[in-house]
Amino acid sequence: MDCGIIAPRKTPREGEEHMSRIQKNKILAILAAVLRTLCVLCATGTLFQTFLSSVGFSEGEIYLNATLVQAVNVGTILIFSHFADNKRPHLRSALVQIPNGLLFLAYLPFCLGHGTSSFLLLTAVSLMQSVCTALNTVCEYKLPYLLYPATDYATVQAIVGVLSAAATLGVGELLHFLEARL
């Protein structure tokens, strides 16, 4: 049905610029997702649990830390899920990443052997990172649909999955290699 509105035709140059912007958006979305996967690997999961074990945490403390982190993550997503449809999700997502990244600095003394093992301190840091990660999940809910056509979503996510798995495997192998050298 024609509503009487005629859309202006794009010149080939405008169309090329539009496509290159969409392609850049896809590449940046893939890169951001892979980097986020590596950050999450360092802040949760087996890599983080191994770190906690190396600084003297017991199995029970590691289990409690992982349980608390997951509970806080789910709770944060549920509490803040109404923000998913607000405007400017890309800006909010970027702002959430800043404290999340800075919180990794809290682990530095422990990595250098200068920190004393404190269950409360490290658990508090990991809980704050869990809140940041959950807020990022909420902020990025509709971001892909704003960056590139919805028809490309499955392809982009498949690429993210493959690259994230390869990056995770690479980090694991690198750590295994470095551990064998020490």
Please provide a brief summary of the model.
The protein is mainly alpha-helical and 182 residues long.
How would you portray this structure in words?
It is a single chain. The protein is an all-alpha fold and 182 residues long. The protein is 75% helix and 0% strand.
Descriptive keywords:
mainly alpha, 8 helices, 75% helix, 0% strand, disordered N terminus
Write the layout of secondary structure elements.
Layout: H1 12-43, H2 45-54, H3 59-80, H4 89-102, H5 108-111, H6 119-139, H7 143-147, H8 153-181
Assembly type of the shown chains? single chain
What is the helix content? Answer: over 70%
Radius of gyration: 21 Å
Could you tell me the strand content as a percent range? Answer: under 5%
Mean pLDDT across all amino acids:
78
Distance between the termini: 71 Å
- Helix-strand makeup class: mainly alpha
Low-confidence stretches: 1-9
Our count of helices gives 8
SSE order, one letter for each helix or strand = HHHHHHHH
Q: What's the total number of strands? A: 0
Largest sheet: none
Gross morphology is globular
